[in-house]
């Protein structure tokens, strides 16, 4: 079972996304901010990170840079998950090291497909 770290400051979003992905067979770890997310990522080494970009403290861009700068976590795929839908935000997410980008509100089918692709499990049932 794949472990996903969801770094999201909005508690309602965190709970809803966690429940939806758990129903799809994923194990979820959560962090409410960038600092905690980077720390938890290094401690637990999840299979994938879902990163909100608009986090308090260090934002998702900086948290992603820190995850990708650490040899222990640099290979973990990071998906930017954000309400920011501008092309410049997408480009900035990729420049920070994100492996993919998805927008809120979450389209669960699309998000799960991206997660499965990044985990090399495209053929798995949704």
From TrEMBL:
TM region positions: none
Q: Does the keyword Lyase apply?
A: no
Q: Which InterPro entries match?
A: CheY-like_superfamily (IPR011006), Sig_transdc_resp-reg_receiver (IPR001789)
Which positions bear 4-aspartylphosphate?
A: 52
Q: Which SUPFAM superfamilies match?
A: CheY-like
Q: Which residues form the Response regulatory domain?
A: 3-119
- Keywords associated with the record: Phosphoprotein, Two-component regulatory system
For this entry, the protein name equals: Response regulator
